[in-house]
């Protein structure tokens, strides 16, 4: 079993568009959210190579809730931020959550 520690977890957000054309308006067709941070990324690759992986780290607030939700389907990592451990076994997990562009997150004050 390989344990990775992610001290700075992140929610990686990718905005997709059909094409990039200079001097035109671009519409987002899809938004993909995926757990990120060096430890999570390393664990994802190790699991894809067949290694049993467990991740620990910090995941607080609303973003932490989203990270824990994404990491639980399929279960690849233990609970982050001191939460209960769920499915500490390897596999191809922590997959992206995808949604249409019309649901793109809006800007908000921190």
Any overview of this molecule?
This protein has 110 residues and is of the alpha+beta class. Residues 77-95 and 98-110 have low confidence and may be disordered. The protein is elongated and about 50 Å long. The strands form two sheets. The chain has a three-stranded antiparallel beta sheet with strand order 2-3-5. A two-stranded parallel sheet has the order 1-4. It has one domain. It has two helices and five strands.
Q: SSE string, helix = H, strand = E?
A: EEEHEHE
Separation of termini? 38 Å
- Residues in helix, %: 10-25%
User: What's the structural domain tally?
Assistant: 1
Ranges where pLDDT stays below 50 over 5 or more residues in a row are 77-95, 98-110
The largest sheet, given as strand count, sense and whether it forms a barrel, is:
3 strands, antiparallel
Radius of gyration: 16 Å
Quick one: how many beta strands?
Answer: 5
Mean pLDDT: 75
Broad structural category: alpha+beta
Apparent shape = elongated
- Number of H/I helices: 2
Strand composition percent: 25-35%
What oligomeric arrangement do these chains adopt? single chain
Task: Break the fold down into its secondary structure elements and pairings.
Elements: E1 2-6, E2 10-16, E3 30-36, H1 38-48, E4 53-57, H2 61-71, E5 97-100
Parallel strand pairs: 1-4
Antiparallel strand pairs: 2-3, 3-5
Question: Care to give the gist of this entry?
Answer:
The protein is α+β, with helices and mostly antiparallel strands.
Key descriptive features of the protein:
single chain; 110 residues; alpha+beta; three-stranded antiparallel sheet; two-stranded parallel ribbon; 5 strands; 20% helix; elongated; disordered C terminus
């Amino acid at each position: 079993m390989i344990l990775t520690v992610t001290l700075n977890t992140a929610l990686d957000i990718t905005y997709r568009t059909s094409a990039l054309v200079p001097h035109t308006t671009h519409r987002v067709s899809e938004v993909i959210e995926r757990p990120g941070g060096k430890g999570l990324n390393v664990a994802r690759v190790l699991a894809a190579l067949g290694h049993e992986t467990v991740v620990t780290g910090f995941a607080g607030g609303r973003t932490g809730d989203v990270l824990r939700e994404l990491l639980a389907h399929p279960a690849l990592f233990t609970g982050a931020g001191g939460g209960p451990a769920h499915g500490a076994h390897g596999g191809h997990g922590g997959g992206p959550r995808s949604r249409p562009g019309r649901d793109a997150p809006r800007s908000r004050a921190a």
